[in-house]
Design goal:
heterotrimer; A alpha+beta (about 325); B alpha+beta (about 160); C alpha+beta (about 725); A: about 325 residues; alpha+beta; Uridine Diphospho-n-acetylenolpyruvylglucosamine Reductase, domain 2; Enolase-like, domain 1; 4-stranded antiparallel β-sheet; 13 helices; C: about 725 residues; Aldehyde Oxidoreductase, domain 4; 3 domains; 7-stranded mixed β-sheet; 5-stranded mixed β-sheet
């Protein structure tokens, strides 16, 4: 790990000021991703602003019936929070599907939003990676790419976004609040992460010195919801495919649906096309298949990840089917 | 920088700490507590699990500066004096220890689980300990140890 | 004998391990010690053209950066140094992840960062990374450790031609890594021309030999210390280059140096299970008697060594087949050397036990019955009778406990709602070695015993079993016996690998303890001050530390009393030899497969074994659970991915090289025939550690076939192959 200046920020103003004053500075929260990447020499900041003591750890109800979650809330605390458990069970499920107990005890909401890919080539500094070093190439396209993305990729980058939490937040239409020395702004989650295009190293729409301070969830829908993660071992593994879904069925027809995918795209993937196909359609297996097919139609596969299309299709259908069944029982 | 941490109930100070050092390094190399183990340094195996302010974390991913002023409990500090904590006793009694290298981290994780949720089901125990890889024992005896310690804990409460 | 042997006594080292007191290789405090960090090559084949260490040397805390330009010549040691070359002796690069520089600094973080600043340029050549890219270059490697790679019995070609039923299939498995949880660590402390190494070594005596050759030092000048190992699974059996380089560097800088490999470095520095392909052809009669096996395997070799570790032992010796032709071919690739990895025979055995299931299905014969019909009651290759073999009992016991009789043999016939249930089985077997071992036993003036042997505790329970056997033979309580291992200052003893420890060490321990008991009894009966004075020695029994006259328990002396009067310790040695052999068993597996998302779960495992006499049921059961878990990892997830273009390991970590977590493993039932093998001098116990798990990958694959009708022949059986 490279030597760096360490600033322990007591408050948000100090944190954003320190970041503004030191170009290339990184905010350090739970450390689960940044410390690892620094030790692997993938991240080499000159300044680290430790924000782990900022008082951004509360969960508050908003006037509109939603929740505002402090960006430094630990994943385990958020998953266990009564308001989250009861009103946004999909989020609790997603949080608990991620990583391990120890890591969930460390990882924060803000950090998880900015979690970087686990593409193995991103981690291997001896191989080309446009995300790590723009202009060098992509070793994954012709290399080992079983875990890589099938939607939203480019010739430059096929890495997936690894977070489970973000998939649920995408389905829930979360809004991210950020702050820098100039002030605060709100970013819908869908607009936070970028697709790689020709610039896979630019992963979000945040300015380098902008600090995520909270995440706001709109009022919960009454519909049954679920987060389902499919992986290579029973626990503590990144998703091959994951689905966050909420489905409201009225008289056999899909009245409202939220659907987001993980493990298949460079960003938490809101399945807009599938939602369009489903809304107003009969809540049947055929509709679910048609929706999945519509979402996955633009999929581009590589040598190793062709199976993800079928796996994603089946996971979408199975999750919607379970929710439809649950809804009809209720 | 100087880092002051309460370790196993004692105030400990380490000088000339480089902020990039991990809490694991500080414990092992500066404070003479090699119980927590360095095995992957990526948060992927759980061998370095210690309590940080009553929460089990991977000490390899905690930057030294982040531990300043906080309290840490390691496997060396679970039992008072020469005795064994019931979780440690249970690991020995059930044969949940083989090579012993993952054991210190597992014991801290199991200790927290038994105190937080002594009624955990098998599935919950397995999930709670998923962050602790063990290559020798195959986990079954570790589950036995957690159940045994939890039963003892429940008995104490009753 | 006080009945300690066989009992599942708790580990004598348990307390040290649960309190963090046990000192592993990287835990020893050495005054004045520096930390080393290796710089590894980033290309797989080529030459170093430029090596710039200036930026690294400029970093605070850095003491030295050594390269091939600085190191003295080191001789390439013989087995168990497997690499075929010593790195950092010249500019040639033989594989990616080969040491090219060694940084030494005051702290590990400084050394790591400095290593990152060493600039190396290469003239790179295109590497060959996979078997598939070079199968046409397969060749029969020369003898390895005096063993050939081709075996012929009868005329397998003709018998296959004439066979009523034939099965021919290809089976394959990828590169896999041991991944002991403890990384390799070596600390070199020189004192003049003497070297002490604190080492994570499965065979300290072997490490001493390797170091002695490399440095041209007498073995007497070298001491290896390894009191605890955090697992090894073969990775720490051979001595690897980091140990030699670090010792050389420590000598150069004149201070003790510790090098601990990172997890990623362990993927190129310490061996692995080779990528492997195998073509198997079985011939049989309609009744299911094997008439021919033609077994042609191809394993990954390197350009610098030709060790074949995934041997076809079970093809050759497990079943009674008159015509067998085994060829173990190899292909030279630009990869690090492979090596032994826990139960190396599993790799080949997977194919054989799968092919037998295919044959059973073809014939309509029950898979257990097929194995019984081909049971070997004498060694099929040598013709020699077994001193003891109860494999047929294993089939019977495990099948009954599993409920095998209720199995409907039709694939896909057993269901539980949407879930398809599959039952499969396989024979488990592995060889074990017996290695000449010596122990020294001291009964001290306080009447307590200390046993010393230069073997090691890898986690299997060596401290415990040795203590148990010694206490039992001495007639002492367990806590009066201390066992000291892991130091070459003690008498030479076996390595903790090849399932050799119990088979090799227990005989000498038992012999020494018997001799010590006899010696102390002789002292007592000859001593006028002893209550046992004049009692015939053969009429004295030892129990719980006391010595009694048989039939007159009022006449009682003790070890403590006898030794106190004697005034000096009694020291004896043991060195009884044993012979190598095989252990056997059977494994039955239930899988539950949900076709909707191709979700597979191993839900039940029942096993039965014949390891001769069981010395400690608890540690033996522990080996079974561990072995079965390894079998599950082998079958379902373990896979080292090598980039086809760069020959670099793509997943050198524990988040993308998956090993089973707790939730992947079912509870494992195990039964033991537990009859002493008269041929074993280790109280009738055979080596056992590597037998459990050998049949598990095939049993899982066979269960998947039973559940789904789909036959998988390439591990790991990941979800994409089951969709």
């Amino acid at each position: 790990m490279k030597d760096f200046a360490y600033v322990a920020a007591p408050d948000v103003a100090t944190a954003v000021r320190a970041a503004a004053d030191a170009p290339g500075a990184r905010f350090l929260a739970g450390g689960t991703n940044l410390v690892d990447l620094m030790r692997q020499h993938v991240e080499r900041p000159d300044t680290v602003v430790d924000i782990s003591r900022l008082p951004l750890t509360s969960v508050e109800e908003t006037k509109s019936g939603g929740l505002r979650i402090g960006a430094l809330m630990r994943n385990s605390d958020l998953a266990a929070h009564p308001l989250v458990r009861t009103r946004y069970p999909m989020l609790t499920q997603a949080l608990l599907a991620g990583a391990s107990a120890q890591l969930r005890n460390m990882a924060t909401v803000g950090g998880n939003l900015l979690q970087r890919t686990r593409c193995p080539y991103f981690y291997d500094r001896a191989t080309p990676c446009h995300k790590r070093e723009p202009g060098t190439g992509c070793a994954a396209v012709g290399g080992f790419n079983r875990s890589h993305a099938i939607l939203g990729t480019s010739a430059s980058c096929v890495a997936t976004h690894p977070s489970d939490m973000c998939v649920a937040l995408a389905a829930l239409d979360a809004v991210v609040e950020v702050e820098d020395v100039r002030g605060t702004r709100r970013i819908p989650l869908a607009d936070l992460h970028r697709l790689p295009g020709d610039t896979p190293h630019l992963e979000t729409t945040l300015a380098p010195d902008e600090l995520i301070t909270s995440v706001e969830l709109p009022a919960p829908a009454a519909a049954p919801s679920r987060y389902r993660k499919v992986r290579d071992r029973a626990s503590f593994a990144f998703a091959l495919v994951s689905v966050a879904a909420a489905l409201e069925v009225t008289d056999g027809t899909v009245a409202a649906v939220r659907l987001a995918l993980g493990g298949v795209a460079p960003k938490p993937w809101r399945a807009v096309e599938a939602e369009r196909v489903l809304t107003g359609a009969p809540a049947t297996e055929e509709s679910f298949r048609a929706a999945a097919d519509a979402e996955l139609a633009p999929a581009v596969t590589l040598d190793g990840n062709e199976f993800k299309v079928e796996l994603a299709r089946r996971t979408i259908v199975a999750t919607l089917r379970d929710l439809a069944r649950e809804g009809s029982r209720a | 920088m100087r880092v002051t941490i309460e370790v196993n109930g004692e105030r400990r100070t380490a000088d000339d700490v480089w902020p990039g050092e991990s809490l694991l390094y500080v414990l092992r190399e500066r404070l003479g507590l090699p119980g927590a183990k360095n095995a992957c340094e990526q948060g992927e195996c759980g061998s370095c699990t210690v309590y940080l302010d009553d929460t089990p974390v991977c000490a390899c991913l905690v930057a030294a500066g982040q531990a300043e002023g906080r309290s840490v409990r390691t496997v060396e500090g679970l039992a008072g004096g020469d005795g064994l904590d019931p979780v440690q006793e249970a690991f020995v009694a059930t044969g949940a220890v083989q090579c012993g290298f993952c054991t210190p981290g597992l014991i801290v994780a199991a200790h927290e689980l038994v105190h937080r949720d002594p009624g955990a089901t098998d599935a919950e125990i397995r999930e709670a300990l998923a962050g602790n890889l063990c290559r020798c024992t195959g986990y079954e005896k570790i589950l036995d140890a957690v159940r045994l310690a939890a039963a003892k804990k429940a008995g104490e409460r009753a | 004998m006080t009945g300690l042997v066989g009992r599942g006594v708790a580990r004598v080292d348990g307390r040290a391990k649960v309190t963090g007191a046990a000192r592993y290789a990287a835990d020893h405090e050495i005054p004045g010690m520096l930390h080393g960090h290796l710089v590894l090559s980033t290309v797989a084949r080529g030459e170093i053209t430029e090596l710039d260490t200036s930026a690294a040397l400029a970093l605070p805390g850095v003491v030295a950066v050594l390269t091939h330009r600085d190191l003295p010549p080191l001789r390439v040691p013989s087995f168990p140094y497997l690499k075929g070359f010593v790195p950092m002796q010249d500019t040639r690069v033989h594989h990616s992840g080969q040491p090219v520089a060694h940084v030494v600094a005051e702290t590990p973080e400084q050394a790591r960062e400095a290593a990152n600043l060493v600039r190396v340029r290469y003239r790179a050549e295109r590497p060959t990374a996979h078997l598939a890219h070079a199968l046409d270059e397969a060749f029969l490697p020369p003898l390895f450790r005096d063993e050939p790679n081709e075996f012929v019995r009868g005329d397998a070609g003709a018998a296959l031609e004439a066979a009523a039923v034939r099965v021919e299939q290809d089976y394959s498995s990828p590169m896999m890594h041991h991944n002991p949880i403890e990384p390799h660590s070596s600390t070199a402390v020189w004192d003049g021309n003497s070297l002490t190494l604190y080492e994570s070594a499965q065979g300290i005596v072997f490490t001493r030999r390797v170091v002695s050759i490399a440095f041209d030092l007498p073995e007497a000048n070298i001491r290896i210390i390894s009191p605890y190992l955090g697992g090894g699974f073969g990775a720490k059996g051979p001595t690897w280059s980091h140990t030699l380089l670090n010792a050389a560097v420590a000598r150069e800088v004149g201070r003790p140096v510790r090098v601990t490999l990172t997890r990623a470095q362990m993927y190129t520095m310490n061996g692995h299970r080779a990528e492997y392909r195998r073509n198997l052809r079985l011939g049989a009669t309609r009744e299911g008697r094997l008439t021919a096996i033609v077994d042609t395997s191809t394993a990954q070799l390197t350009r610098t060594d030709h060790g074949v570790y995934n041997t076809s032992e079970s093809t050759l010796r497990l079943y009674d087949c008159p015509n067998v032709h085994v060829r173990q071919l190899g292909v030279r690739l630009d990869l690090p050397s492979s090596s032994y990895m826990r139960s190396p025979e599993t790799t080949a055995h997977f194919g054989l036990e799968t092919a037998l299931d295919e044959l059973a299905h073809e014939l309509g014969v029950d898979p257990v019955e097929l194995r019984i019909r081909n049971h070997a009651s004498a060694d099929p290759h040598s013709g020699e009778p077994y001193s003891s073999k109860h494999l047929l009992d294993c089939y019977r016991i495990a099948a009954r406990a599993f409920g095998w009789a209720r199995r409907d043999p039709r694939p896909g016939s057993m269901r539980d709602g949407n879930v398809r249930v599959g039952w499969g089985m396989a024979t488990e077997t592995h060889t074990f070695s017996a290695i000449q071992s010596n122990v020294e036993l001291t009964v001290d003036v306080d009447g307590r015993a200390t046993l010393r042997a230069a073997t090691q505790e890898i986690g299997t329970g060596t401290y415990t079993v040795i203590t148990q056997v010694a206490a039992d033979e001495l007639g002492m309580p367990l806590e009066h016996v201390t066992t000291l291992l892991g130091d070459t200052a003690y008498p030479d003893a076996a390595l903790s690998a090849a399932s050799a420890t119990v088979a090799s060490v227990i005989g000498p321990v038992s012999q020494a303890a018997q001799d010590a008991r006899k010696a102390v009894i002789a002292l007592a009966v000859a001593d006028p001050r002893s209550p046992l004075h004049g009692v015939p020695a053969e009429d004295v029994v030892a129990e719980r530390g006391y010595l009694f006259a048989r039939g007159d328990r009022g006449r009682r002396d003790s070890y403590r009393g006898a030794l106190a009067r004697h005034g000096r310790p009694v020291i004896v040695t043991g060195s009884r030899l044993n012979s190598s052999g095989h252990s056997y068993g059977a494994v039955f597996v239930e899988v539950r497969f949900d076709p909707r998302l191709a979700t597979l779960r191993v839900s039940r495992v029942v096993t039965a074994y014949d390891p001769g006499r069981v010395l400690n049921h608890r540690t033996a059961h522990g080996q079974v659970i561990g072995g079965v878990t390894w079998g599950i990892g082998f079958a379902l997830m373990e896979h080292t991915m090598v980039d086809p273009h760069t020959a670099r390991v793509v997943n050198p970590n524990l988040s993308t090289y998956l090993v089973p977590v707790s939730a992947d493993t079912p509870s494992v039932e195990s039964f033991f025939v537990d009859r002493p093998d008269k041929g074993s001098t280790a109280l009738g116990a055979r080596g056992f550690g590597e037998t459990p798990g050998t049949g598990v990958p095939a049993a899982i694959g066979n269960a998947i076939f039973h559940a789904t009708g789909r036959r998988l022949r390439d591990v790991p059986f990941t979800r994409d192959k089951l969709l």
